[in-house]
Amino acid sequence: MTTLSCVAKERRWGLSVSCGVLGWVLDAYSFFVPLFLLDPLAKHFAVSKSAIVATVTATLVMRPLGAFVFGWLSDRWGRKYPLMACILWFSVITSVMPLTSSFKMFVLLRALYGIGLGGYWGVGAALVMETCPVRWRGLFSGILQAGYSVGYLLAALAASTMEPKLGWPSMFLATLIVAGFIMLLLLPSVEPARTTAAHGTSFKPWTIFMTHWQSFAALTILMTVITCLSHGTQDLYPDFLKMVHGFSNQKVAKLAILYNVGAGLGAIVFGRLSDRMGRKQSIYCAMSLCLLALPAWAFGRSFGMIALGAFVMQAGVQGAFGVVPAYLNEQSPSDARSFFAGLAYQFGMIFGAPCVIVEYAFRDRLGYGGALAAFEGCVLIALALVLFGIRERHSGLVPAASA
Questions:
Q1: 393, 330 contact by CB (below 8 A)
Q2: Which of 43, 173, 203, 227 is buried most deeply by CB count within 10 Å?
Q3: What is the spatial distance between Cα 332 and Cα 12, in angstroms, rounded to a whole number?
Q4: How far apart, in whole angstroms, are the C-alpha atoms of residue 219 and residue 348?
Q5: How many other C-beta atoms can be found within 10 angstroms of the C-beta atom of residue 161?
């Protein structure tokens, strides 16, 4: 009976991986939905569009709190049920947003949603990395990270199809339906063997930080630089295309779809390459792709050249990012993997978020394209230096040591 049970569990690892990936897609979709509904939301709450955009700050600042709470629960009680709680948390909150007519309540809900957004990655990444076969860990790392781009594309698709036919509230309510489907998949999914064996154990967060502070600092710096690489190539690029090249909204939308496809492919391809050549080497290769794409991405003159540059650039950027789930989990202490990796990821996101302000400030001195290119060139150099100082642990998920 025990042998049959082990075989059954072995066959169910695909459910665990699927839930981890689908939950991250849903989380990303929920984050981007308000950004595609600026006009309807501004009209509904009788505020400016800039006020709606500003609610993103409320979401972002709560992410580390979510990583702390849900990461601790996951490392103490296992992955499945904290993950289910996290999905339920952010999907219910998202579905309630269109039901309120108070803008203050909307801001509060976006802040509470940020706890779920911040909590999901650490738990979901740990579940995927611990249940998938070791030889495919890099591949599923890339697939997991590509889920963020898929969530963005689904939000864009919903804005063009659901919103005109069913109304903008339907885009929020859809999260609850998808969350229910993920819950049904999670119930029969397998719990990683390590968390089953360690069920009910506990750790003191302060002790973890004191023991592994060098690794935590190194991983936080790494995530800060990778965040600058990602957001620095994405956030201002649509505005750059409109202001410098005079592209219409339709052209910008086509390019956004194209380079998000490149982003997803890059994450998967370089994630898989990391299984063969190592995590750091794979990230270095992805960075080389970014360097090759930089001239066409920032200084291309024709639509075709810019499209090619944007596609290759995002393939490289998200190719580097696609290795992150496996890399962070392999660098984390075995008894606090969700907590440790999740917090490093979210703090890096917070510290790297102001990068677009720096880029934007240099437009007058260097020109828009020059500012983007100079900033990303510096980021690539910084990333190479940070990676050089972190030891490779591609052989397996082991306790972290000093970086």
A1: yes
A2: 227
A3: 25
A4: 8
A5: 11
User: In angstroms, rounded to a whole number, what is the distance separating the alpha carbons of residues 255 and 263?
Assistant: 12
Amino acid (one-letter) located at 396: G
Dump pLDDT digits (tens) for 52-66: 878 888 888 899 999
Q: How far apart are CA 287 and CA 17, in angstroms?
A: 27
Q: What does the block give as tokens for 265?
A: 């492919």
Which ranges of 246-302 does DSSP label H, i.e. alpha helix?
Answer: 249-277, 279-299
Q: Longest Cα pair distance anywhere in the chain, in angstroms?
A: 71
State the DSSP string of 137-185.
Answer: HHHHHHHHHHHHHHHHHHHHHHHHHHHHHH-THHHHHHHHHHHHHHHHH
- 379-402 pLDDT, tens digit each: 999 999 998 877 776 544 443 333
Indicate the pTM of the whole model. Answer: 0.82
Residues whose CB falls within 8 Å of the CB of residue 177, separated by 6 or more in sequence, listed in order: none
Structure tokens at 54: 């500003």
222 and 390 Cβ atoms separated by less than 8 Å: yes
Question: For residues 37 and 53, what is the distance between their CA atoms, to the nearest angstrom?
Answer: 10
- How far apart, in Å, do the first and last CA atoms of the chain sit? 44
Domains and CATH numbers, the chain: 11-200 (1.20.1250.20), 203-403 (1.20.1250.20)
Please count the helices (runs of H) and the strands (runs of E) in the chain. Answer: 21, 0
Gap between the Cα atoms of 83 and 183, Å rounded = 9
Q: Tokens 């991250």 appear where?
A: 24
* Spatial separation of the C-alpha atoms in residues 257 and 252, rounded to whole Å: 9
